[in-house]
Specification:
Blueprint lengths: L3 H54 L2 E2 L7 E2 L3 H8 L1 H32 L6 H13 L2 H12 L5 H8 L14 H26 L3 H9 L4 H12 L1 H16 L3 H6 L19 H11 L3 H29 L5
Antiparallel strand pairs: 1-2
Length: about 325
Amino acid sequence: MQTNNEVKQHDFELTHVTREKRRKWGSNDRKWGLIMVSPYLFHLVFIAITFFTSFYFSFTEYDLLTTPEFTGLRNYEKLIYEPLFWNSFWNTVYFTVLFVPLQAIIALVLAAALNQKLKGLKLFRMSHFIPVISSWAVINFVADAIFNPRFGLANEILKNFGFPAQQWLNDETIVIPLLVFIAVWKGVGYMMIIFLAGLQNIPGELYEAADIDGAGVIKKFFKITMPLISGTTFLVLILSTISTFQSFEQIYVMTGGVHDVGQMGGPNNASLVLMLYLYREGFSFLNMGYASAIAWVLFIVLLMFTMIQVAMQKKWVYYDK
């Protein structure tokens, strides 16, 4: 039989071996972890380099072909007195003001419908998510089939009801609302899924208790549903605002920029937004220093909007502690 000292010695050796194995395993774990995240770390380094490089370029005159020439605040002064910049800025704000609340409301309504126990929900989800995964080139073909001024379906319907045909994307008064309508149709499925996740996290016991108290559908929605998905709503508003201020591909593809630089931005620059204006100055006219200044103004505007939304969330966002 083993003595107490032998048992203690055996336990000590076993513990020491186990600790040694754990130490080696933990060391290997860290090595493999660093290997796996290394592409992302390189990506961060690349982002940091471009971030500070663009900041330097914003104080220079640079055309990609010659050495950058430092000009101080000249690019930012030009922005202040350039009517086209302010036109693109207000077009972006107009697009955002229409797009963000409209997409959030429609996404919430669709998510509430999907949260019900009904037949055919899988098909319903798929039909609303297909536009999200479709490219803007495909969406442009669909939109052109509907809103083409000469042979589009929309004008045919208007003619049948006795209304005059519209120019749609060629009409500077309705081009932004129409682009917003198409953008909502394409992107609402993504926000719908986010809202659906928030709705499915609400405990069913709360609705059962409200039913016992005699609460109606509207009261349950505003007293239970909206407070408990306020965090999700805040996320949707932040993501929508950022994506809208960065809108480029849709407007570039659908307002003629693919075929003619002069048409980029729609009729009379009515759909010229900040990202499109930045692209036109930087990559069409090679005013890379000026384009960098536009990018930094866009960054500051987005940062201000985000900070305002974060500050205001304390008044209406509810977090379950």
